[in-house]
Amino acid sequence: MTTKRIVVVSSGLSTPSSTRQLADRLADDTATELRERGVEAEFQFVELRDLAHDIANHLLLGFAPPKLEAVLESLGRADGLIAVTPIFTTSYAGLFKSFVDLIDPDALTDLPVLLGATGGTPRHSLAIDYAMRPLFTYLHAVPMTTGVFAATGDWGTGGDGVRSLPDRIRRGASEFAEAVDRFDRTAVHGDPFALDRPMGHLLGGLAGE
């Protein structure tokens, strides 16, 4: 069975966090959708709250402590990214943006990204489209058409009256799973172990031929 690696980034600040809860739900439905396609999902969950000091140090000093560096490197090997943030003052959290600023500009090229956000009122739901989507498009990632916003009133209710939160999660996860299944990192970035010229040339010292 094919295995796809998915990084799940959550930038909730409280414990427990509705942002992490939404991230978990998106991951669970994605795993189900991929399994139906004969694909196994391997998830790496990242709580930015736990990396806040490392992120600040990287921004101030210019280098990543080992734990943060490992997370950033994992994005360069991932087949998909689930990114979920709380919405503060009509946009993503500062911690979330600070983390994104540290990502290698090439790491997210053509990478499928499922966007999620949480907030107190459905009025913040548009932040996915006017704030989060342009951010990841700028990084050459491929955000899914369906972004999933969860307001406080969505938990344990029928949702917004048009499509319930579970329905929206399922729809976003389905789109994301299809994109992850198709994604081929070697086609985007090439094989890092490939030789830049034939082996015979390397052995024979024929560098430019």
UniProtKB/TrEMBL annotation:
A Gene Ontology MF term for this entry? oxidoreductase activity
Q: Does the keyword Oxidoreductase apply?
A: yes
The UniProt keywords, alphabetically, are: Flavoprotein, FMN, Oxidoreductase
Q: Which superkingdom?
A: Bacteria
Q: Where does the NADPH-dependent FMN reductase-like domain lie?
A: 5-155
The UniProt entry, under NCBIfam families, shows: LLM_duo_CE1759 (TIGR04037)
Q: What is this protein called?
A: NADPH-dependent FMN reductase
